[in-house]
Structures are given as C-alpha cells and as structure tokens.
Amino acid sequence: MPSVSFPSARQASTVRVSRSRAILPEELSAIPWLDRLDGQERARVVDDLRVVSVEPGELVCRVGRPVTYWFGVIDGLLKMSNDTAQGMPITFTGLPPGGWFGEGTVLKREAYRYNIQALRKSLVTGITVDTFHWLLDRSIGFNRHVMMQLNERLGQFIAAREIDRLGSANARVARSLGSLFHPVLYPGVGSLLRITQQELGYLVGLSRQRVNEALQVLQQARLIGVEYGGLRVLDLDGLRRYLDAEPAPTVA
Questions:
Q1: How many whole angstroms separate alpha carbon 250 and alpha carbon 252?
Q2: What tens digit of pLDDT does each residue of 82-125 get?
Q3: Which of 57, 100, 235, 247 holds its CA 20 to 30 A away from the CA of 187?
C-alpha cells in the first residue's frame, strides 16, 4: 500500500519565537490545567504564555534543538515524528486541540528527540522552561497533572507500537483514531475531531484513498460518523479494541 508524503524535517521551516504574541483572554479556556493553579501561579502563567500561528509544514520543535517551552495546541493539528537511519519518516502520534506535549523533554532540559510539525494552520501556545519548573516546585495540582500526562503518554506510545504491527489497514485507522480522541491527553477534541482524510493519512502512513475505505468500514460498524469537515466518535472503546482481520489474498 503506498504511503503519503509530507515535507521532511530538512525541508520544513522552524517557527520563530519572535512571531509570538501574548495569549488572549478567550484562548485561556483551551488550557485544561489552568484551573489547578492558585491566583499567584495563574497570574505568572498568563503573563508567561506566548501564542504563535503555525503554517502547514512548519516545525514547532526540531530534533537536536534545545528545549525552550512546554507547548500546547489551541487549534489545528500537529504531528510528532522522527526519521529512521534510512531517512524514512516515523510518526509517533497526532496532536489535536487541547494537547500539551514534550513534558519529559522539559523535565530533563534536554534537546528534542523528535520533530513537531503542523499538518494544517494551527495556533500553538507555551510556557517557558523556567515557569514550568517553577510550577513543579510549588504546585501540587500542576505536579499531579504532569504525572497524569506522563502516565497517559506512556500508554499511548505502547499502543502506537501495537498499531505499527497491525496488518489490517482498517485496524490501524481505527486504533489511531482512538488515540486522537483521548479525553485526558486531548480534552479539546470532545466527540468531534476536525480532520481530513489526507491529514489522517499523514498520521497513519496510508494513502487518502485507503483511509477513505477504512472510514467507510468503521462507519458501517457504527464506531464513527463521517461528518462534513470531521469525524464523530460513536464508540471509543470499540475503536481502541478494533482488530479487523482483512482476508488474505487467494492463490490461484
């Protein structure tokens, strides 16, 4: 099955921090952990938050660059990926609205081991590494949120390894969709994910045509509903357990 292509890390440009702006009051509701902070902590975070508009193909994080911010998605869709030694791209996960990522890298203050690239025009926000560690030193609520993030992320990557080994394209699409509807990691998605078949193909590594076929199968199974501009989840547990076995080709 042919895979889809997307600009490589070498071809993509990296977002410049100088393009960033202060966060708007109406955008604060997209940050799920703000309500865990006290007044002083919230004030520092709001003052520290920066927002940048990212064009399709641009990199928010690049392999080897030192970490500077802990990032979150206000709107749009990003992907976390890397390249193999042979130069082949490997996608780890998609990052829809409400998702915050890279906490492990920020905790260790190390260089990025992955690329974060925009699949469509997106709004990305972030707090500096210093503010992140300041919150860790004083906020029990923030610590609990980060611990939950790390635990859920571990489970997500274990599931991603299982998805890579699935022979059924339908199952790969189903399980990948299940991970994008994660209510803890991506609370901004809700029950409707704004995503195109081409974007889903970038994340799963399948052609748009093959993704379309898989979505029709999943819709007939009443696991999802295909709507204009997005996909609605009808049975999240069913998506995560989906193990459709496609029939093996017959030998003449």
A1: 6
A2: 865 556 667 788 899 999 999 999 999 999 999 999 999 999 99
A3: 57
CATH class of 167-241: mainly alpha
Distance of CA 230 to the CA centre of its chain: 16
Environment class of 195 (CB within 10 Å of its CB; exposed 0-12, middle 13-18, buried 19+): buried
How many whole angstroms from its chain centre is CA 181?
Answer: 10
Q: At a CB cut-off of 8 Å and minimum separation 6, what does 170 contact?
A: 213, 214, 217, 218, 242, 244, 246
Residue type, 19: R
- Give DSSP secondary structure letters for 91-109: EEEEE-TT-EE-HHHHHHT
Give 247 or 81, the one with higher predicted confidence: 81
228 pLDDT more than 90: no
Query: Cα 157 to the chain's mean position, in Å?
Result: 12
**Token pair for 222:** 């009443």
CA angle 190, 193, 197 (to 5 degrees): 165
CA distance 99 to 184: 9
Distance CA 196, CA 88 (A): 23
Q: Which residue has the tokens 């339908």?
A: 170
Residue for token pair 């819709």: 219
**The two three-digit tokens of residue 13, written as one number:** 């440009």
Tell me, what amino acid is at 161?
A: R
The domain 17-159 belongs to what CATH superfamily?
Answer: Jelly Rolls (2.60.120.10)
Name the amino acid, one letter, at 208. Answer: R
Q: For residue 74, is pLDDT > 80?
A: yes
The residue among 51 and 166 whose pLDDT is bigger is: 51
Where do the domains of the chain lie? 17-159, 167-241
